[in-house]
Amino acid sequence: DLDSLPFPDRSIYEKYDYFNSHPVRRFMSGRGCPYACNFCFNHTLRRLYSGKGTFVRMRSRHNVLEEIKRVARKYPAMQRVKFEDDTFTLNKKWVIDFLGDYKAHVGMPFACYSRADRVDNELARALKEAGCDRLDFGLETGSERLRNEVLNKKLTDEQIVEASEILRAN
What we know:
Order of helices and strands: HEEHEHEHEHEHH
Number of helices: 7
Radius of gyration: 17 Å
Strand content: 5-15%
């Protein structure tokens, strides 16, 4: 239960003016990734934690929002949010619900990570409306064969092109 954990202690950085005045603050809404890409460490973590519960876990949206609001109050220089989850858009229902609350209670521009095969028009519209001005997803290589046979990314060229077109349109 990630909500049972305390928020990260950011005070260790307070002695550095750079961090106190930096406009971007980073957050994570969950842990774990269901994908088994060969270049990533998550498949190793999944083996290490096998039998110890669900590997991919999400915080409640209210818990994430509370952390963001507390950090914004404590660090007034904060002007934007960066979600550092491997795939912030993994659980579409969670993200759509969260984005409505985020827009209403935080309202800062933000950036996040996704996968091309997780992007659709509904999600892209919701991200934009909530203030997302940057969404990154990895291509790793322009070769579909290398991407899938060597890196085990399981992502087609068509999915990448479609996601790019959807994001550009939104």
